[in-house]
Design brief:
about 40% helix; about 130 residues; alpha/beta; elongated
Amino acid sequence: MRFRIRKGKDCSVYTIIVSGLVDEDAGWDIMQIAQTMLSMTRCRKLIIDLRMALLDEGLSVFTSDTLLAVFEEGLLSKDAALIIRHRYDSEIRLCSDQLPLQPTGGFINVQINEAKFLARAMKWLEQEARMLAH
């Protein structure tokens, strides 16, 4: 197995290009390197390109369950994405999507009688929705 690492012009996108035969041990080595790279502060997108690699039949490292278990903590700590590219233009994409939330609309001053009336109407609609579901 051989690999090379490329970085984008703004140093936020990194690509690991893998070639050669990848067995279970080599797959875990790639995962360890990728986990370290994704935890770097400037890395926002990491691409592991396996299109030129020959994957061993019993290889279970690059399944979605394993990827999520390994990269979950790193993806939840910042806004980042991990992309695993396979042959035939298929890919697995894990994104944290921790973008800033949009501010909610302002509250409107309402009389207490009107608020009580609207609360009763909402409860009635909720009960009707339950009856329709059953």
